[in-house]
Amino acid sequence: xxxxxxxxxxxxxxxxxxxxxxxxxxxxxxxxxxxxxxxxxxxxxxxxxxxxxxxxxxxxxxxxxxxxxxxxxxxxxxxxxxxxxxxxxxxxxxxxxxxxxxxxxxxxxxxxxxxxxxxxxxxxxxxxxxxxxxxxxxxxxxxxxxxxxxxxxxxxxxxxxxxxxxxxxxxxxxxxxxxxxxxxxxxxxxxxxxxxxxxxxxxxxxxxxxxxxxxxxxxxxxxxxxxxxxxxxxxxxxxxxxxxxxxxxxxxxxxxxxxxxxxxxxxxx
Length: 269
Hints:
By secondary structure, this protein is α/β, with parallel strands linked by helices.
């Protein structure tokens, strides 16, 4: 790389902090340049052990960096996405579900030269789905099981008065399309949105969500039927200690995605 790419991170929680710590240790071709966090004092404390303390800026200022990583609540997605795309940056969202109702951002990115790169996140096997999509995919089904506490507060549960308290058996709390799931569970099923974008789309991708008191991991089962192959993927992601709605693998996936942008050797599509 003739140029080191600067990285700005929106959100300093379970994902953002892990990514920032990795970049601070030194990563070929990448430099942490800025972060945005709601609680500045807490962010400064969390950067106490960093080699280099970087500035804490507003979400819009992150667009001055070459790469903008989003790890924020869905409510502020536009505040980080729009400036990054308007500035022609590489935008890496972890809230992939927020892309589905905003596909106009893809068209705008084409106009400005921006790139929207959705990391694999908790969903291993996206390469296989993308490859199958070059042919004909007949069906894609995703079955997600999560500890009940990891689903609490989801809009679908609140709006439909669905309780996940005190469960002693698994409870099906949602069945529908990936698009509907992304709306009803914006903090939980970004993996379903990524699957939909990689495969046959948000309306054709089928999704079930179970609140399961017998699991201590975020479980995903993916079933794909295509003209080129048939496969099933089973993933059991360990929830983050900071945020049980997010798997530990999400931050690691973002790090891998960033390294893939600058590495002289990239394995996988």
